[in-house]
Amino acid sequence: MDELDIDVVADVELDDPVLIEGLPGVGHVGSLVAEHLLEEFEAESTLVRRIYSTAFPPQVSVEDGVASLTCTEVYAVTETGGEDLLVFTGDHQAQHGDGHYMLAEAFLDVAESFDVSQCYALGGVPTGELIESYDVIGAVTDESMIDDLEDAGVEFREDEPAGGIVGVSGLLLGLGVRRGVDAACLMGETSGYLVDPKSARAVLSVLETRLGFDVEYDSLDERAEEMEAVMGKIREMESQASMDVPSDDDLRYIG
Amino acid sequence: MDELDIDVVADVELDDPVLIEGLPGVGHVGSLVAEHLLEEFEAESTLVRRIYSTAFPPQVSVEDGVASLTCTEVYAVTETGGEDLLVFTGDHQAQHGDGHYMLAEAFLDVAESFDVSQCYALGGVPTGELIESYDVIGAVTDESMIDDLEDAGVEFREDEPAGGIVGVSGLLLGLGVRRGVDAACLMGETSGYLVDPKSARAVLSVLETRLGFDVEYDSLDERAEEMEAVMGKIREMESQASMDVPSDDDLRYIG
Amino acid sequence: MDELDIDVVADVELDDPVLIEGLPGVGHVGSLVAEHLLEEFEAESTLVRRIYSTAFPPQVSVEDGVASLTCTEVYAVTETGGEDLLVFTGDHQAQHGDGHYMLAEAFLDVAESFDVSQCYALGGVPTGELIESYDVIGAVTDESMIDDLEDAGVEFREDEPAGGIVGVSGLLLGLGVRRGVDAACLMGETSGYLVDPKSARAVLSVLETRLGFDVEYDSLDERAEEMEAVMGKIREMESQASMDVPSDDDLRYIG
Amino acid sequence: MDELDIDVVADVELDDPVLIEGLPGVGHVGSLVAEHLLEEFEAESTLVRRIYSTAFPPQVSVEDGVASLTCTEVYAVTETGGEDLLVFTGDHQAQHGDGHYMLAEAFLDVAESFDVSQCYALGGVPTGELIESYDVIGAVTDESMIDDLEDAGVEFREDEPAGGIVGVSGLLLGLGVRRGVDAACLMGETSGYLVDPKSARAVLSVLETRLGFDVEYDSLDERAEEMEAVMGKIREMESQASMDVPSDDDLRYIG
């Protein structure tokens, strides 16, 4: 295998498709969104590419006893009711800095071969505390994109995310702009401690508005309820701990 | 030296040989099996290749004062009573992700030059607790291989191994399937805390059934008894600890 | 993107310019100096190059919602009242050893294309304790440069910095000398615990003397005062701690 | 700079020279020996090569204010009273596994250009405890070399060093044998906690016997006395600690 191998699984005609990148990251927000889209549009989705790389962890995943090599899968989604989509998803990010650059370029190469001119990199932004209201923070390659995204509910803040955007999501913007691709990163706020379906829902809602499709949220809401139960227990433990020494933080969380 | 150097030590005619990979890993299960096979078939084994790589640790091992560079050794084994074997063994895995990919490809290159069409990657799967009954978990490149392996006692479980298979064993499956090689990974259950000859015996027993040879287990049983003594001490310590506060775990182990 | 990409943003005629390198490091001394120069000479500065590399962290920074890929920016500064300058600045150093070498060579390539023959690499040298008097320690590529720098207040000490100079600043000297570039490293003493505008001022003062320009210090002094407040609190805490067991160290700091 | 740059500083005719490698490592035994040889034979030594590499740490050392890039220096030593020497010394080993392989090959390339046919890699082997008697452990590329080295006082032990030999010293043997170079590693026993001039002396004494030269030990003995003072304090502290609970270990050390 070369350090990068792109398998052509199928070819599908897409009409001015929009790239959606949802790899694992903070709160698994990006991958939850990508997986949910592929679940909801299962009948309309076709696996078109598999991207293998020696920059991925040297491992296979096993499902029902059958092993498959770590890769990024690319799905073409048509007849969404809105824009056609090209969805990038998988179980792993690259393992080192050079690999992140190589994979982001590979993603943009595939995007180019499908004439993608618009790109959404999805992720989570950690707040460090349990949250009630799920804002979506944005970053773009060009200032002119901000207004439309603000209309769809995205917030742009002067100094956020403070540490910049790390990994393939950041590079899709950083390298995309150098190729003339308009790219936005949508980051759902999330505590950062748990897989966060609610944050994923907030991001999905922005995509619906921007891209003109509608999806059901049942399965995502179910996962959210499971997580809610976990979070309930955490709050309970915090509440008991605060019996002895109540603090501002406890009041904010439980209030 | 190039990043990969394959020394041809000897050439042996093999009849449709089966690749056996047993490099160090969890519980040293894979390397115990490979070493035991080479011990039992000493008279029938020929060292045919040495695979050197800058991806191995930069070190030599020393035996009776003579140094030898870290490598993977490949032995051809004939007249086993069953299938001919091509056994890969050594003291080290690659040191980084890219190196794992490079070595797995090199193993498959050597296999191809001997017309191997079937491959067993051996390893251990950690259970995190001392165990009584040594199951062997399987993973395969193609669903069609499952029935025969189940007949030989291998278990296939929906979500195991949970984290996938890491290292050269996983990659022999992940990269093998891309070259048309049927590959299975046999993972002996093991606590993960100790070198585990009993787990190795369970894996060997599957290989006997599948590949039609018979081996003695005396030396392996001896090592198992030594380990049993160690485990006995561990149980004793647990038992004493549980005098004060008995727990479910203690009951399960000692019962 | 290649492992190194140098974007030509503009070209400016410079008269025998002096390279100033101020990347992040101990006490952020180097980057404070570079930023302050660009602030003070804003009207006289032109962004001429952006140096991108896969050796940088795989990330974008975000300002007012707009993302930009990690890079080193190179500014041409004219009409300083003294020498023309070529200032290298940015948010990140390379992530690994090989990358440091690659970037330092790239810096020297850019310098060569502007006919730079003199180079100042800026940084901090950690003393491990809060300090009152900010000396600037020097290192050079050729003994003949020492006298002039000593006249400008730089100190050369037998065994300092003890551990040598790590990162791009050190390599500009180590690789520069192999290309016939006279290079000096100016290291402001700093505790190493805090961003240190006072140490930056000491280094700037040497540059003023050597390169014949004058800059205002207001904004740097403001930052120094903010830091002074932080340091004041640290001293206070030390003072309280020393109530119980006064030590030589406390006396030295507080005196 | 390329990943490897070998500067030819001078060329010296050598008569069947012996390679001596003494880079930093356990107890700094190897580098102490190399430095002592160059000190004692100062008048007979000529710097012939500098080996630069991006695998070294990205740093310069500074002496009297003048910076020099990390490298391995190679000295030709003639008129020793015994064999001519080619001594490899420097402040750093490679920073990663691939780099160790690259540098060891570079060392052997230089050795070949001087028609070296015999190689001594020097180092320390950690015992983990303070020691009284300084044995020298050996490892060789070919069994036939053992007798002569045993005659010179080197010990060859069945399972030592247990973990093999890591770094450039090990690779000079592992890669040397593949090029037809006879190589031995001489490892002075050392606690592993301190720079150990006594261990260096033991190794030097073997080299004297094997290579037919004589050196003074005054400067090495001075350093040994300084270290002895440090070790004395350690013993004292151990002794005091053992007042309360004497143990076998204490008895062994203090006797």
Task: Give me some keywords for this one.
homotetramer, 255 residues, alpha/beta, Rossmann fold, 8-stranded mixed sheet, two-stranded antiparallel ribbon, 7 helices, 25% strand, globular, Proteasome_assmbl_chaperone_2 (chains A, B, C, D), PSMG2_sf (chains A, B, C, D), MJ1210-like (chains A, B, C, D), Proteasome assembly chaperone family protein (chains A, B, C, D)
What layout of secondary structure does this protein have?
Four copies of one chain form a homotetramer.
Chain A (H helix, E strand, L loop, with lengths): L3 E5 L9 E5 L6 H12 L4 E9 L5 E5 L2 E4 L2 E6 L7 E6 L6 H17 L4 E9 L9 E5 L5 H6 L13 E2 L1 H9 L5 E9 L6 H15 L6 H27 L3 H7 L1
Parallel strand pairs in A: 2-7, 2-8, 8-11
Antiparallel strand pairs in A: 1-3, 3-6, 4-5, 6-7, 9-11
Helix pairs in contact in A: 1-5, 2-4, 5-6
InterPro entries (chains A, B, C, D): MJ1210-like, Proteasome_assmbl_chaperone_2, PSMG2_sf
Organism (chains A, B, C, D): Halovivax asiaticus JCM 14624
Protein name (chains A, B, C, D): Proteasome assembly chaperone family protein
